[in-house]
Amino acid sequence: MRDSGKSSLGLTGSLLIAHPNLLDPNFRRTILYLLTSDSEEGSFGFVINRPTGKNVEDFLPDAELGGLESIPVFVGGPVAQDQLTFALFLWDEKKQSVICRSHLVIDEARELARSNTKLVRAFIGYSGWNKGQLEAELDEKAWLVQKPDPDILDLEKCQVMWQTIMREQGAWFRLLAGAPDDPSQN
Known about the structure:
It is built from 5 helices and 9 strands, in the order ββββαβββαβαβαα. It is an alpha+beta fold and 186 residues long.
């Protein structure tokens, strides 16, 4: 785990892990993959661990999907939830990092999905921050910042990754992560 620092510069390609105290329902217990982060332009990413329980065919029932129909759709964030976006995620062994290309056109997503070596994901909505907004949230310790590992490419591991990361942070995080949102339900 690295210190978030004061600037979001250099965070492109990082994971933002919601602190257990972050109660915003849009980001509670989420992990985001940060596609872009610029101190002047703002930041953009997708929540990668919040499945909708639906597949692409549920959102595009009349489209010729050619292999995309069974791809699960995730809630990418609270912005533009009326838009479906395809993204390609790859593990770069040489750089030991995850690479993501977003906003694939449907034909390109269809072609990439046919390859067993490429991981295409679908998102409704995205997460975005204006200039200075993410830096302020990092200063408030709303997010933990971590370099992604290949496990984020595994859909099943990704869905339980927030809890796994919290357990790795120590007893205090483990306790906070296990607490209900409403303590009266404990």
